[in-house]
Amino acid sequence: MILPPDEGWTTRFAPSPTGFLHLGHLASALVAFRLARDSGGRFLLRLEDIDATRCRAEYATAAIEDLDWLGIVSAREVRRQSAHFDDYRAVLDRLRGEELVYPCFCTRAAIAREVAQSGAAPHAPDGALVYPGTCRGLSMSERAERIAAGVEHAWRLDMRAATARTGTLVYHTLEGGTVRCDPVAFGDVVLARREVPASYHLCVTHDDALQGVSLVTRGEDLRAVTDIHRVLQALMGWAAPVYHHHPLLREADGRRLAKRDGAQALRALWAAGWSAEALMARADLLAAQGSAA
Ligand code: GLU
């Protein structure tokens, strides 16, 4: 187990407000909240709401309200990513200046076609299709022409160039392990999308650094992408937090508890008469069963 710094752990819970919080979120928030509290550190709440098509203000407000009711309160003002696009643009500008990102004009359909034609469909460790690199080879003038013509584009990280710069990367886990990263397996990930001028990878690493998060706790579904996050941290000169990926809560049939399955919202349970203590005990029990499974 890694010991906390003198000031205790700075942790965060960073949900995307795409639905009401459920027991899985509560279990995750409790991990972060207790590690901060028990080490004399601070717990932060951050709303990862850059995707206006999926996130709703109503869910953001509800998340803060639910956590307040449970006594899981942010030690600083809640950060809403949608209010900070300038910060994320500045990161992208810097990477662009260092020629580590390139514009990608491919539509999803074009990428699917290209992959089908090549006969190989490599998947990244997070299950996403690896981008075949089509736009990486465009000349500077071709890029400039298309941008000037208003062709919609995303910005991708040139992963080989980036990792040539960073060298081999590792991260440390709370349990005391050292994990060697393999970011190249993800290919050239998107750092700014066509519809949203930022991406999860860019915003999460920027904000963890800005907010001084020293211990990132989150579900094990995000373990793999930590390799990408380490690259961005190394390129930007940001300190690497310690990581703790916890198991996800599962339904009795073993399926992951998720918003889309109508997992019971905390506020529905609250309205049905559950006390805050009982809800936390329920989340703890499910978490304990989940890790035992
Ligand atoms: N916003 C992400 C989610 O709701 C979590 C981000 C993180 O903890 O790194 O899945």
Automatic annotation (TrEMBL):
GO terms assigned for molecular function: ATP binding; glutamate-tRNA ligase activity
EC category: ligase
Record-linked Gene3D superfamilies: HUPs
Domain Glutamyl/glutaminyl-tRNA synthetase class Ib catalytic: start-end pairs: 10-275
Protein EC: 6.1.1.-
Family annotation (InterPro entries): aa-tRNA-synth_I_CS, Glu/Gln-tRNA-synth, Glu/Gln-tRNA-synth_Ib_cat-dom, GluQ/Sye, Rossmann-like_a/b/a_fold
Stored Pfam families: tRNA-synt_1c (PF00749)
Keywords: Aminoacyl-tRNA synthetase, ATP-binding, Ligase, Metal-binding, Nucleotide-binding, Protein biosynthesis, Zinc
Biological process (GO), any one: glutamyl-tRNA aminoacylation
Similarity comment text for this entry: Belongs to the class-I aminoacyl-tRNA synthetase family.
Protein name (Swiss-Prot/TrEMBL): Glutamyl-Q tRNA(Asp) synthetase
Organism (species): Endobacter medicaginis
Origin organism lineage: Bacteria, Pseudomonadati, Pseudomonadota, Alphaproteobacteria, Acetobacterales
Encoding gene, per UniProt annotation: gluQRS
